[in-house]
Amino acid sequence: MAAGQELAADVDGQWLFRHGDLVLGPVSGSQIVEKLKTGELTPDSPLALAGERDFHPMKEVEPFKVHVALSEARVRVDAAVQVEREKNHKRVMVLGGVAGALALVLGTAGLFLARNAAVHGWFGEDEFEGIEMEAPVIRVAQARQDDEELFEYPTQGTARPNKPADTGTTKPATGTSKPTAVASASRTEDRKPPRPSGSVNTDAEGMEVAQQFDQGAINRIVAGNKSTLFKCFKEEAERSPGLTTKIPLEFVIGNDGKVNKLWVDNPQFKKGPLYDCLFVELQKWPFRAYDGERATVGLSFNIGRKG
């Protein structure tokens, strides 16, 4: 029998195969096919029938040609699938990056809009028509009792005494020189411009105290956050239809930059929902921490239109 005819024998016969310099087997033809599928053998692996000396590549052995063709087709399909998976993975990565960037942009825009709405309302300050704020008054904190009311709002340079003043019980003077001098000094101090931040002031007992809060920074915070108080007044106007009044208030900024005391100098609103709302909002204002004497800020709001 010719060698080619022997190689064309049934695949279920016993076969030898080479693995490097080793000759292994005999094994059945089905085992050869299984090794081909698992990759242990390749189409170029040498095979021979048991008892034969001539080895030929598997792809040239007739009983295995069909199995070799199927194996090569399977390899091509797997390679194509792998390429497609890599493409899909890249697409997912790109789309994920785009989605992440879009989410970041939308999140940033949302935060900006939310902050803007919290400060100015969704439709700007026009939403709070009928509420006006006068220019703030900033000065060194002075002692005051909780039940003290300030219907006439203080101006720059005006300070409440830390202890009872003697002028209230002083007998009228017979001459005019001393009272005139006192009044002149008071008017002169009222005309003084606001002291710059970081200056040194003198208290009532003649001791120097450092004033280190920044009035300009405080003014900027007030201007940028004042509308957070407008919603409190708007809610109060809804609770009290036809409300038309002036509501002065005064708050103290602690050295940690947080508002820690509030007075509403209107007997109708010294306590209650309006006071609570104002205090909560003021405590959110981001004042800077500072050293030295505490700062007091006075604000005055006109609610409703005066006809």
Q: What is the total tally of β strands?
A: 11
Low-pLDDT sequence parts: 1-9, 121-126, 147-202
- Secondary-structure content class: alpha+beta
Largest sheet: 5 strands, antiparallel
H/E series: HEEHEEHEEHEEHHEEHE
Number of helices: 7
**What is the mean predicted local confidence, pLDDT?**
75
Report Rg: 46 Å
What is the terminal-to-terminal distance? 125 Å
Strand content: 15-25%
Helix content: 25-40%
Gross geometry = rod-shaped
In short:
The chain has 7 helices and 11 strands.
Compile the SSE list and pairings.
Blueprint: H1 3-7, E1 14-19, E2 22-28, H2 29-38, E3 46-49, E4 56-57, H3 62-120, E5 131-133, E6 137-140, H4 177-190, E7 199-202, E8 208-211, H5 215-225, H6 227-239, E9 245-253, E10 259-264, H7 273-282, E11 295-303
Antiparallel strand pairs: 1-2, 1-3, 3-4, 5-11, 6-11, 7-8, 9-10, 9-11
Helix pairs in contact: 6-7
Explain this structure.
The chain has about 300 residues and is an alpha+beta fold. Among the domains are: about 5-70, Dna Ligase, domain 1 (2-Layer Sandwich); about 130-165 and about 195-305, no CATH class. It has 7 helices and 11 strands. The strands form 3 sheets. Strands 5, 6, 9, 10 and 11 form a 5-stranded antiparallel beta sheet that branches. It has a 4-stranded antiparallel beta sheet with strand order 2-1-3-4. β3 (about 45-50) and β4 form a beta hairpin. It is rod-shaped, with a radius of gyration of 46 Å.
